[in-house]
Design goal:
Layout: E1 139-142, E2 147-150, E3 195-202, E4 206-210, E5 223-226, E6 230-235, E7 243-246, E8 258-259, E9 266-271, E10 279-284, E11 291-297, E12 332-337, E13 344-345, E14 348-349, E15 363-364, E16 369-373, E17 376-380, E18 389-393, H1 401-404, E19 406-413, E20 422-427, E21 435-442, E22 445-452, E23 457-463, E24 473-480, E25 486-490, E26 496-499, E27 510-514, E28 527-535, H2 540-553
Parallel strand pairs: 3-6, 5-11
Antiparallel strand pairs: 1-2, 3-4, 6-9, 7-10, 8-9, 10-11, 12-28, 13-14, 14-15, 16-17, 18-27, 19-24, 19-28, 20-21, 20-27, 21-22, 22-23, 24-25, 25-26
Length: 560
Amino acid sequence: MAEKGFGVKEVNLIGASGTPTITSPNNLNLNAVNVAISTNATVGGTLSVTGSVSVGGTLTYEDVTSIDSVGIITARAGIKMTGGSLFVGGNSNFTGTLTGTATTAVTVRTTDESSDTTCFPVFTTAAAGDQFLKTGTNLAFNSSNGTLTATTFSGSGASLTSLPAANLTGTLPAISGANLTNLPADTPTNSDIQVVYTVTANGASAYRFAGNGIVSTEDNPDVYLIRGLKYRFINNSGGSHPFQIRGSSGGSAYSSGVTNNGAASGNIDFQVPHSAPSRLYYQCTAHGGMVGNLYIRGAGGQNDNVGVTTFSGSVTVGYDTTYSPIQQAANTWFYTRADQAGSVSGSNIENLATGSIKISENIPISNMTRQSDAGAHSFYNSSSTSGSVTRDMTAGNPFAPKSYGLTMGTMFYAHTSGNNGSGVIHYGWTPTSHHFFVRYKYNSVGLNIGADTDGSDTWTTAYQDDLLSDSNWYFFVIAVERNGTLLTSLNGAPLTPIRMLGTAPTPSDARFGLAGDGYADNDSRHRYATAFWYRGVMSNELIAQEYAWLKTIWTGASLP
């Protein structure tokens, strides 16, 4: 049939049943101002619209899984999603309010940016709820150098470290400072520490000190303290070396002004009292060789080991009545002095030496007593002789004169008694053992020295009879060198040899004693102000110093 056109105003498709069909071998074009479909329309294939599609009611896509648009989709009243997710592949611009509720944490993908010098961190005005993202010009971040700038920082600041001093400017605000430590007090107090020493150990043989005036590598150095000042010794020696301040080496603790004395670690504080003696000691309570001197200076007390001082004009010299020169010498084994009340305890004469080798034994006083005498005191019995004033010292071999030499001496008041001479002072004991004895007026000699190294006494005259007499005070010193040479001193004079060479005694019983000797017929009634036994041969200077000091104490002795 030839192509023809015709006009139709209305087409009605009427059938008894089924769906009427309009079939065309080609496209079916409806060309009109409007094509109105008053009922439902179903499109089985693709609906292509070159113009706009207007929907007066609701456009429902029951079985459609996606909408693919090459242009812009405009929703005038909004987009409502009842399920699923909204994915945006490109940039999104929202000109109104974007409201939503996140059921999981919201994440934002970022990239490293370290070149902007001025950035403004984003913040909200509350920690939760619907919030607006904000920035402020008073909070800025320089991503180039990592500097965060704010008008004010507030908080504890506990984690702030490495703050450059050059950048700390302005005035600090008024704060309590309760947690600030190691700050000097605004006003000095009576508990302030003036000097601090750090104490370490060199093995178990010596202490070392780090602090003002002390070489930190020196073992057991001398330490000088000032009366009235407070010192802190920080014991960092490892926990096994208790540090104790003592009155003597091996003696009891000195507690006046000392806090935490004997601590194995930590602080030992020492407020040096004005009454402190001129010399104390520090010592490890577990290792006796870790010991050194604490020399005390200043205030009204006496000084020791002060070095050399040059004076012009006249000088008046006084002496330390607390310790005599020999009493505080490092090599003094035993020293007693009757002017001190502590020289007698119970039935014993006590060892008042303060040196580092002081021995612990004492000597029985026998039937003597401590009595006022010669301006001070002495030990004596006015009506009977005394011969048991002696002690067998337990550590015999270290005292052997053949090993070190030996010096012993006494300030005594002479009195003739006994059958063969009055014993003055002795070392060793039994007649057949190694010893040497000093006798007064024995065989008509002023002072005789009996030495025995082979079971037979060898007597040597120290001073002739006319040089000594009864009822006079004398300061007598005798020394024996390792080669057996005997030397004596009377009243502070230099030691003089009285026997050259020989053999030094090495007794198994290292006895120290007075008023007799190993022979029963030499007990005496001498009076004794002092007595000592000293390791080695004593210097003439120390003997002279002791003699000068004795004259200031026993002022009634009329020593020449």
